[in-house]
Amino acid sequence: MGLIVQKFGGTSVADAQRIKGAAQRVVQTYREGNQVVVVVSARGQTTDELFSLAHEITDNPAARELDMLVSTGEQVSIALMAMAIHAMGYEAISFTGAQVGIVTDSHHTKARILTINTKKIKEELNKGRIVVVAGYQGVDAYNNITTLGRGGSDATAVALAALLKADLCDIFTDVDGIYTADPRIVPQARKLDRISYDELLELASLGAQVMQARSIEFAKKYNVPLRVRPSFNNSAGTIVCGEVKEMEDVVVSGAAVTKDEAKITIRGVPDRPGQAAKIFKELARSNVNVDMIIQNISSHSLADITFTVPKAELKAALEATKRINEEIRAQEISSDSKIAKLSVVGIGMRSHCGVAEKMFSTLADEKINIQMISTSEIKISCVIDEAQAEQALRAVHKAFELDKVRA
Ligand code: ASP
Ligand code: MG
Questions:
Q1: What does 278-328 look like in DSSP terms, one character per residue?
Q2: Are 14 and 44 in contact (CB under 8 A)?
Q3: Considering only Cβ atoms within 10 Å of each terminal Cβ, which end of the chain, N or C, has fewer?
Q4: What's the CA gap between 70 and 46, in Å, rounded?
Q5: Would the CB of 97 count as within 6 Å of ligand 1?
């Protein structure tokens, strides 16, 4: 007998039929002899609708009241899920985040979980009940309802799994599992049976939106085994776990492309100590999240600095850059939002060489120009023209033979 946390995302509980289907999966797991904690998201587009509703009232809703509002989506889901389980003849009880003591900091709309009082959940489990917990929400030290950032039900599920020392955390979603690339772009993409936390983290941050990145970090830290699986059929999904030796034999596990970033170039920055520090300090002060950074020295002791930021933050980033440039006096500031970032990811890269060469020559063969390059231990990313994003992803997927099943 084990303890399993099962999380159902918005699409998996979108309507009555789907809620009943999800309840069946839960009951099946319970009947197999497990204790089950269920975490649910708001139904379908509910959270988006609630945000829109707030913005119909005012352009600038108070963060505390936003949390009060958007957290209601999950409260609806837990009650319906508990009812669906009752209707099948099993005992279940639903709780909001506050009711089970999911205590967070006070950063409304992006709070972090500090502690969870697992006593109540354990008591209910020991009574033989299925416990249904609202995802995405908690309560701060002053009893204010908080939410955990978009996609935050994953955080609830993983945190509960960690603290309850669950044997497994099932993430039910509308995809079959984790793929070698987005199957909508690469029809030959293949579902992976297993992937490491680090690889999934890289892919998640690249826009393979399977799970909230912060939750994957948490799962890694507490070594919570995850299984990303479809809610609409019985296929096995993908296990996300710590590294095992065999994983290193696979040089590249996945590829992804994102069009979420824009780049800013500052040309002719006087090449002296402290300039980059000034620029990035100003960007940080404006809450801009910088991703890739490249600097090179051009002639006459002048440097060029190029960096990427989320498209949504481009305006703020440009303003910050112009502001600081009054002090720095670089020659020219330009930006381009028509870029894409293509990446290949794999823990095997640590011990194999030639990955960069293969990626670059694949792009060269496709006549795709590389504008920026950055690498980490397990990832190589290239910034390219947005119009060539899909073509590039397909080419790289093929070059690394990601469509081929490995022994
Ligand atoms: N309902 C919340 C959202 O849409 C949380 C979640 O789905 O995980 O972001
Ligand atoms: Mg959602």
A1: HHHHHHHHTT-----EEEEE-STTEEEEEEEEEGGGHHHHHHHHHHHHHHH
A2: yes
A3: C
A4: 8
A5: no
Q: Are 164 and 170 in contact (CB under 8 A)?
A: no
Beta bridge partners of 83: none
Q: Give the tens place of pLDDT for each residue, 235-293.
A: 889 999 998 877 777 889 999 999 999 999 999 999 889 999 999 999 999 999 999 99
Alpha helices in 58-191 (DSSP H): 63-70, 72-87, 119-126, 153-163
User: Helix (H, G, I), strand (E, B), or coil: what is residue 350?
Assistant: helix
pLDDT at position 301: 87
Residues 25-51: tens digit of each pLDDT: 999 999 999 999 999 999 999 999 999
CB 135 near ligand 1, within 6 Å:
yes
For residue 88, give the H/E element and its range: none
Counting atoms of ligand 1 from 1, which one is nearest the CA of 150?
9
Q: Look at the domain 3-174 and name its fold.
A: Carbamate kinase (3.40.1160)
Q: Please report, in angstroms and rounded to a whole number, the separation of the first and last CA atoms in the chain.
A: 32
Amino acid sitting at position 269: V
Closest CA to 150 of 231, 73, 241: 73
Contact status, residue 136 vs residue 126, Cβ threshold 8 Å: no
pLDDT over 70 at 375, yes or no: yes
Give which of 209, 321, 302 is closest to 263, Cα–Cα: 321
The residue ranges of every structural domain in the chain are 3-174
CB within 8 Å of 340: residues ≥ 6 apart: 257, 258, 259, 383, 384, 385, 386, 388, 389, 392
What one-character DSSP code corresponds to residue 349?
A: G
Establish whether residue 136 lines the binding site of ligand 1, counting it when its CB lies within 6 angstroms of any ligand atom: yes
Q: Which region, left, alpha or beta, applies to residue 354 given φ > 0 means left and ψ of -120 to 50 means alpha?
A: left
Give 268-279 pLDDT, tens digit per residue: 999 889 999 999
Alpha-carbon span 132 to 92, nearest angstrom: 7
Cβ of 44 less than 6 Å from ligand 1: no
Ligand 2 centroid to Cα of residue 111, in Å, is 16
